């Protein structure tokens, strides 16, 4: 995309803010659990549905909105604007309803309508950046995705003390101004859509001018297959995509299990108040920021100079993830084995920061690897990956509390850390043999 750096940065910032608000809205309800249990007479298991159904909503949404954004006559912006408008409307309605079943249903639609930023956000960044510089755009976007859920409880904790519905209004106060900015100031990024609109303007004077997309036969059935069936086929046949799907689901589900683990560990073991427990989530943001600094340094001084000397392979994008997968498991083990009253609370918190930063690096690496290895199916693969990891996270939201109470925080997190250790070998295998796997694949791009 032949745009100025400032315009590219502007688009990246808007998409990142949009994604941050959407992810922050997932966890912003958690400090209201006790208030809703008293208000509506529901159990803690039932009240957790307000988070779980939101996650299920944004698991389903990208499967529908992602293919729409690939149609030239639609583009990226209409799914963003239309769906985020409905997200804001649903958010306003939630502030006014006073029955728990209605809140649960509306939370699903809230997650569903806000979801285009998940799969399409990465596609928008790939639209405007070169393959070498796309990493910088992904840093901002992935950081917003990671920091959003961590900041949600903190934003709501101090507000709900006066009125528990303030957490609902905070979503409206964040989303409404952002919607206006997106509608007025977000430019279209889809190459085919831009060329189509340009051809339509020129055609008023030169009727024979056609855009590239107008010479293609739009087969909705083929689009549906590419969006829904093809990712499943690729996941089954290509070990690299299957691994990415499994590992991303584990990391994501572990993250969302912290909304149950932190109150049990810091509230139950260290006797912290709810506001103090919410502050512990800042360790996730600290880890993400430190990892961002490291990753930018790596790109600027190691990776980009290497690109100028020769074209790196897709597997070279995985190099930062090789130590990160070890640190991710180490961070979980540190948290699991140190969260006890005889050990200062900062020690397990450092483990969470290590886990967070390592997860950030891993996600950066696999997003780039999938984008470069499967460019034709990248949007659909992102949507399918989001579906699997979000459904897994929703399941963890519902049962992780029982796991931590029955096994204890130490043993429960150790189980997740052990699963993470098993995934280390998958990353090493793809780095060493990924080129051979891509050469044999009928879906991937070979070197």
UniProtKB/TrEMBL annotation:
GO molecular function: fluconazole transmembrane transporter activity
Gene3D superfamilies in the cross-refs: MFS general substrate transporter like domains (1.20.1250.20)
Domain of life per record: Eukaryota
GO cellular component terms attached to this protein's record: plasma membrane
Biological process terms in GO annotation: xenobiotic detoxification by transmembrane export across the plasma membrane
A matching Pfam family: MFS_1
Record's subcellular location: Membrane
InterPro entries from the UniProt entry: MFS, MFS_dom, MFS_trans_sf
Keyword line: Membrane, Transmembrane, Transmembrane helix
Membrane topology: Multi-pass membrane protein
Limits of the Major facilitator superfamily (MFS) profile domain: 11-438
TM region(s), chain numbering: 9-29, 49-68, 80-106, 112-131, 138-160, 166-186, 240-259, 279-298, 318-339, 345-370, 377-400, 412-433
Protein name, as recorded: Major facilitator superfamily domain-containing protein
Organism of this sequence: Aspergillus coremiiformis
Lineage: Eukaryota, Fungi, Dikarya, Ascomycota, Pezizomycotina
């Amino acid at each position: 995309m032949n745009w100025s750096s400032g315009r590219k940065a502007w688009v990246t910032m808007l998409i990142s803010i949009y994604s941050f608000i959407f992810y922050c809205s997932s966890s912003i309800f958690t400090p209201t659990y006790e208030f809703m249990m008293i208000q509506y007479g529901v159990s803690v298991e039932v009240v957790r549905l307000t988070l779980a159904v939101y996650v299920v909503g944004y698991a389903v949404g990208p499967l529908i909105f992602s293919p729409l954004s690939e149609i030239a006559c639609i583009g990226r912006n209409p799914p963003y604007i239309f769906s985020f408008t409905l997200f804001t409307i649903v958010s306003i309605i939630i502030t006014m309803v006073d029955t728990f079943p209605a809140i649960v249903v509306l939370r699903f639609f809230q997650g569903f309508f806000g979801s285009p930023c998940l799969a399409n956000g990465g596609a928008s960044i790939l639209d405007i950046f070169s393959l070498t510089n796309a990493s910088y755009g992904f840093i901002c976007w992935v950081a917003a995705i990671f920091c959003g859920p961590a900041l949600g409880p903190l934003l709501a904790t101090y507000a709900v003390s006066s009125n528990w519905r303030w957490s609902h209004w905070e979503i409206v106060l964040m989303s409404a101004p952002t919607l206006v900015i997106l509608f007025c100031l977000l430019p279209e990024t889809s190459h085919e859509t831009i060329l189509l609109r340009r051809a339509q303007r020129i055609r008023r004077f030169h009727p024979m001018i056609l855009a590239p997309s107008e010479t293609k036969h739009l087969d909705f059935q083929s689009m549906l297959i590419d969006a829904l069936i093809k990712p499943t086929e690729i996941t089954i046949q290509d070990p690299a995509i299957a691994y990415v799907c499994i590992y991303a689901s584990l990391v994501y589900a572990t993250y969302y299990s912290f909304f149950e683990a932190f109150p049990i560990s810091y509230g139950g073991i260290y006797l912290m108040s709810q506001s103090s427990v919410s502050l512990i989530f800042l360790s996730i943001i600290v880890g993400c920021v430190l990892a961002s600094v490291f990753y930018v340094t790596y790109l600027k001084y190691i990776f980009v100079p290497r690109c100028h000397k020769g074209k790196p392979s897709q597997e070279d994008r995985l190099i930062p993830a090789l130590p990160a997968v070890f640190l991710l498991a180490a961070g979980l083990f540190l948290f699991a084995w140190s969260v006890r009253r005889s050990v200062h609370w900062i020690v397990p918190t450092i483990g969470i920061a290590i886990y967070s930063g390592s997860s950030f690096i891993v996600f950066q690496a696999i997003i780039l690897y999938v984008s470069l290895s499967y460019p034709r199916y990248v949007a659909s693969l992102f949507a399918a990956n989001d579906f699997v990891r979000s459904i897994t996270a929703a399941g963890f939201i519902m049962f992780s509390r029982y796991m931590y109470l029955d096994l204890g925080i130490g043993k429960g997190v150790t189980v997740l850390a052990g699963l993470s250790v098993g995934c280390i070998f998958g990353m090493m295998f793809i780095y060493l043999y990924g080129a051979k796997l891509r050469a044999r694949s009928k879906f991937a791009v070979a070197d």
